[in-house]
Amino acid sequence: MGTMPAFETMGTPEQAKVGAILVGVDFGKVGFDASLEELTLLAKSAGAEPLQIVTGKRTSPDAAYYVGSGKVDEIIQAVHLYGAEMVIFNHALSPAQQRNLEKRLGCSVVDRTSLILDIFAQRAKSHEGKVQVELAQLQHLMTRLVRGWTHLERQKGGIGLRGPGETQLETDRRLIGARVKMLRSKLDKLQRQRETQRRSRSRSRTFSMSLVGYTNAGKSTLFNSLTKAGTYAADQLFATLDTTSRRIYLAPVGNVVISDTVGFIRELPHQLVAAFRATLEETVHADLLLHVVDASSDMRHEQIQQVNEVLEGIEADDVPQLIVMNKIDLAGIEPHAELDEEGKVHRVFVSAVTGEGLDLLREAIAQFALENAKVAGEETRSDQHVSDPRFDVMDS
Predict the structure, then answer these.
(1) Percent of the chain scoring above 70 in pLDDT
(2) Which of 98, 242, 244, 267 has fewest C-beta within 10 Å?
(3) Where are the beta strands (DSSP E) in 172-281?
């Protein structure tokens, strides 16, 4: 059966890294250099070793190769010069473009969508996360299934030559279709379970908030600093894929629930947005979104916009936001809070690593919770001595 380009030697530190040539095309949009830096991080996060970046300028993609024929020759030279095993494009390629490029380059070609899918496949830990990733991969694969049977295209005429290929292809499609249907059924069940948990929290009037933000903005580090949860956090893209929730105690509010979610990124494959909708729905049903921003990034304003676009796509754009400007230790900024025109805290500047500004953040959250009257009952507030609520686990 045809398969997506895969990083067969990636995944663990013990395995050899795949040497890759990175390709980016400048269409005149803002942030091209930053997007190349992001591509390098994505490649490294997947386990590739970037050997060279080939860039070019175009007004629109080439129909056959995405880049021009001359640029294809330049990529071929780079592949031969560095002995690269793979070429990674910073763009979404059509099945035909990917097939044409692999024929010309003589090596595996991976586009941005496949690259992100591969990273997600490596990082998913929970059952729900793995189901979501597999569903996204299969949906992506179905558009490229014919790539595995291109050798049959040249077999013209003759009984038993062309037919079996078509039959096999249809068999593959039916098998994948059945698997997709089963995975969607599983996700629906998991989504219903998650909804039951949310209703339970709603009945207890527990204030809930979700961490959202661009990937690598420091959400998981902030989550750990607030909850002492010890969840995985690393200086890499998509370190967190599975939503994790914890209860923390905030005086004078009482118990509140905070959830860590997957990071957003520009041009996030639509298959992943759809597949991870159940996970991202934690943000839809939150009382407050803590929008974590890397204050040290030159692209922070564009990243805020990218996150808000995804939130709009999952219908969470009407959930109140508190901007958390993180990594002030790297940006050389002192911890402080900024007020909006109504005199309410709009932004808090913190460092999740050093802990600077976290008291200001807790105060801002508590103020919002009290103003919105979504607080735990009095019996919950007076029950601090029973157990430390910071370590109540509600992994999704």
Answers:
(1) 73
(2) 267
(3) 207-213, 244-250, 254-260
